[in-house]
Amino acid sequence: xxxxxxxxxxxxxxxxxxxxxxxxxxxxxxxxxxxxxxxxxxxxxxxxxxxxxxxxxxxxxxxxxxxxxxxxxxxxxxxxxxxxxxxxxxxxxxxxxxxxxxxxxxxxxxxxxxxxxxxxxxxxxxxxxxxxxx
Length: 134
Description:
0% strand, single chain, 134 residues
């Protein structure tokens, strides 16, 4: 017999945490698969430019997820809100630093492929939840 008892706060947090990290894993997997397809269709430079663009979006999202969901247990609401603000601020700073470093340090770089990967990673934020079942 299935119980319709609501989840406790710890169970709810654990389920959300699992869902977020499944989403990020799916994003990383999608980015690598797409980069392999780009490599088969074009060449290595276009492929790694695409992958660097995707990772420039995904790595800051990982930071945000660990910042918000990294602590175990139930926390007061004001602490959760602070972690969201700090996580988002850190994510924006990391994104700008990573983008700058890639353009400064990586030569040769195909800018169109880089921004395609970056945009596809951002777009996957909207598409991946359709493929993850809760």
